[in-house]
Protein: ABC transporter domain-containing protein
Organism: Vagococcus carniphilus
Amino acid sequence: MLEATHLSFQAKDGKKILKDINLKIEKKTSVGIIGMNGCGKTTLLKCLANLHQEVEGDIQFLDQSIKSYSKNELAQKMAMMHQVNHFPFDFTTNEIIEMGRYPFNEGRLGLLKSDKELINEVIKLLQLEDKTNEYFSTLSGGEKQRVLLARSLVQTPELLILDEPTNHLDAYQQKLILRLIKELNLTTVSVLHDLNLAYDFCDVIYMLKDGCVQYAGETKEVMTVANIKEVFEIDVDILKSERSKEQYIVTL
Ligand SMILES: Nc1ncnc2c1ncn2[C@@H]1O[C@H](COP(=O)(O)OP(=O)(O)OP(=O)(O)O)[C@@H](O)[C@H]1O
């Protein structure tokens, strides 16, 4: 679905933020990007979404160079849920979710009946029915996250890019949102800070350190005690729950 080869990115001030990254996203997989603060995770997501122009290397998306897509074409195939959660003007929940259909409106003024049906379906899925007429600025952090996810979902993207999708969510909502995304069987690439959520949700993990991919591969093979110590500089244990029989990571 997407393949980046020898990707490097240098900021305007000359700082090398990403160094020779190779990354592959297969269809219907959840790819996770983890690493310490400032190691380049968000920058990498922005490069994959073609939001940075001065990127070295090559990104092929659906067998085409990412640079060959117009903004509108790309928005029909790829959605990015950003960390930013404010808008220059105050929109209602409904208005923000509707924006996800703009790339498809082909110059029409209003939305089609099918757009409205899709929007209503997603609103229900994310339990936002009673928030549709509320102003975004008045919503809680968790509600804002769900609205931004709803906007991305109505874009019906082939690839969904998520920058810390569980930010501001309580423990219950974190699991709920990630399970829901999993059940939708989408192709995703996400930055996740919570190691346990990454361990649980992702099929494949890229561990970044100082702008380089330090380890990459299937989650359970890559997120080992030794690799986590090297990349995050913390000691952890990986234990098995007596009750759920699932493994989880504890910081020592
Ligand atoms: N446009 C830019 N110009 C200069 N420096 C930048 C630019 N964009 C990012 N950086 C720097 O590059 C580094 C990586 O930033 P990035 O936001 O990608 O990190 P991150 O891994 O997502 O961090 P966090 O976990 O804290 O969100 C940081 O030191 C940041 O200050």
